[in-house]
Amino acid sequence: MYRLVFLRHGESQWNHENRFTGWTDVDLTRRGIREAKEAGKILKENGFSFRYSFTSYLKRAIKTSYFTLEEMDLLWVPVEKTWRLNEKHYGFLQGMDKREVAKKYGEEEILSWRRSYDVAPPPLPLDDPQHPANDPKYQELNEEGCTPGTESLSDTIKRIIPYWENEIIPKLKQHKEILVGGHGNSLRAIIKHIKNISDADIVSLNLPTGIPYVFEFDENMNLIKDYFLAEEKKLKLLMEKVANQIKG
């Protein structure tokens, strides 16, 4: 059996302020650090012992992975960073208050930009300081001329699934247990692929921060079962909190 754990980063400063974050490199809050450490404690108590880990280029995911692994006494484990696990790029919404934007544009429009499969928010202009074309860590993307100014979930899936198939799955087969630290939408993209969730139903999948989500596979990489390492009542409340971020 193979076990893979998805872990959305702990609470970030902009999670706390209820802002759209996307590729903006925002740090963890104190609560986010506690969530990461608690995830490590829970994983250790449940017998997990990773030999490899993946995360994005964004510090909130990187630090979450490190705090989690530290709690498990696994800081020596290799952590592979990739822009392909970055959050969905939220275009011009990045930095904006979610409830204020919902009041201006309507909850239906914001839900479409935020959760739908193939609708992207309006893009950032190329000369905007927040555009990743102006960030040195995306130099390779600039050279290829494919640095995004916005993304839909469909766009996010297109950049992640090849990496999932060519990099993450081989490492899972090699090490039996791996940790994948990421973001709400980058992880939703992989989960949609694994569970064959429809374009319509993926809208209702909400991932809380700092809660390990376990996937177990058989020898042929067929999904056996998936489950969160959290008490059901707590998990429901956290998911509802994510879902209600745009409500006044």
If you had to describe this structure to a student in words, what would you say it looks like?
The protein is an alpha/beta fold and 248 residues long. Strands 3-2-4-1-5-6 form a 6-stranded mixed beta sheet. The longest helix is centred in the middle third of the chain and has 23 residues, at 153-175. The mean pLDDT is 94. The protein has helices spanning 13-16, 30-45, 59-71, 98-105, 107-115, 139-144, 153-175, 184-195, 232-243; strands at 2-8, 53-55, 79-81, 177-182, 213-217, 223-228. A hairpin with a 5-residue loop joins strand 5 and strand 6.
Pattern of helices and strands? EHHEHEHHHHEHEEH
Low-confidence stretches: none
State Rg.
17 Å
- Amount of helix: 40-55%
- Indicate the structural class: alpha/beta
Biggest sheet: strands side by side, in what order? 3-2-4-1-5-6
- Number of helical stretches of at least 4 residues: 9
User: What's the overall average pLDDT, rounded?
Assistant: 94
Largest beta sheet, briefly?
Answer: 6 strands, mixed
